[in-house]
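User: Quick sanity check before I run a bigger batch. Here is a single chain. Can you write out its predicted 3D structure?
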Amino acid sequence: MLATLPAVLAGQVSRSRPKANPLPTVGEFVRFVDPITEAFVVRLTALSSASFLPAAANRFVSVKERYLVFSSDRNGSASPFQVDLRTGVLRQLAITAKLATDSLCLDPKERWLYFVDDGQLKRVEAGKKEIRRQVAEPIASDVSKFSMAPGGEIFVVQAGQLERIERSDSIKLASEAGAICVAQPGAKGCLFSREISATDREFWYASVGGGKPVLLAKGSIADPFWAPDGQTIIFLRDVATPNATLAEIHEVGLDGMHEHCVTPTSQFASFAPNFDGSVFVGASRSKAQPTVILLLRSAKRELTLCQHRANKAANVAPAFSPDARRVYFQSDHEGKSAIYSVNVELLVEPPGESQSG
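Assistant: Done. Predicted structure follows.
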């Protein structure tokens, strides 16, 4: 099967499986062999508490200092933590009252960790070994969602309005903003959602330059991501057919016209692209095959990485590390939600040095 895969996935053909390196003697890391693919999978967090990844669109892995930020209720309520990916050492970064577990996001320089706690956008320092639990610095109030552009610009959904935070003020971009907010590369605008029903929503684009927001897509849609050039978005769409409801990855431009199917999927419930959108990782909602899958965009071919067996596939939230060497996901199949990692560096080409940094 591997011999038929294109070049981006063909590294596994000519190279034997790497030997297992010794795991850290400190920490909670547990490695096991996936029963379906025989790939090495590492559980990064213990099962004595629940741990959660940030949203896949957020930056939550430091390539420079090799750590991952996540949320855990191990001290009673959900709080932000950091785990050293080399040693397994854990550190709580702040004490929070009502943390939005999917909101954690590192700034582009990986100095600050931003998150939403009890309706406030806050930040604490991250990465330095001497840092202990801190009192988080408040940035804005009445915030339900936020997104950080690659340049560090911040967009928020504040009191139901989409705004861009400036140093001394904020700029209103749209009203009736919902549960999704994703900053455009270059910070020229922001994608946001409006909820129609429990299953349907709309994706809108608001420009910093002014003008009315543009409707991009509506229906049973989820997981929007910007293309690297910031001119289109890709997202999951459920498409009803006479025999079944299929999950497809779609793309649409900023004018909301000419939406098209990029590739069908094997029933993805959640997904994320790599750095250039050439490879996707998805979590299948199939009850018979609850797996994490790599999907090559150009050839529309899939490769199963491992099982996830989560009770709800949409919560698996798989995502690539910034250097595309690993895929991270979460699953509750062992009781409580835990964070897992699988190596894909022989399957997916890494970005150039400027992109990975």
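The first strand starts at residue 30 and ends at 33.

User: Great, the batch can go ahead then.
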